[in-house]
């Protein structure tokens, strides 16, 4: 698999769908929200992460998908792909 070209296309797709933040490190989340905002933000982030994971999985061939099938997050899949 030519991961270099695929990565460019996939990042472009994630940006287009508003999901690119799913590839960022989880430690950069803000803690300045009140409880209601924090809960809402956490739910929105979880939904975004799930959509990004799904988008990446759908864009993989079967052979590559087998290599990353145990990863449950978009970042996990991305990192695993970079190591292949």
Architecture overview:
The chain is mainly α and 84 residues long. The protein has helices spanning 3-16, 35-58, 62-68, 74-83. The longest helix is centred in the middle third of the chain and has 24 residues, at 35-58. It starts with a helix and ends with a helix.
The biggest beta sheet reads: none
- What's the β-strand tally? 0
Number of helical elements:
4
* Unreliably modeled segments: 27-31
Q: Give the % helix.
A: 55-70%
Mean pLDDT: 87
- First and last CA, distance: 9 Å
Rg is 14 Å
**What is the H-and-E element order?**
HHHH
Please report which band the strand proportion falls in: under 5%, 5-15%, 15-25%, 25-35%, 35-45% or over 45%. under 5%
Judging from the principal axes of the Cα atoms, what is the shape? elongated
Alpha-beta classification? mainly alpha
Looking at this protein, list some descriptive labels:
single chain; 84 residues; mainly alpha; 4 helices; 0% strand; elongated
Q: What's this entry about, in short?
A:
The chain has helices spanning 3-16, 35-58, 62-68, 74-83. It is mainly α.
Secondary-structure map with pairings?
Layout: H1 3-16, H2 35-58, H3 62-68, H4 74-83
Helix pairs in contact: 2-4
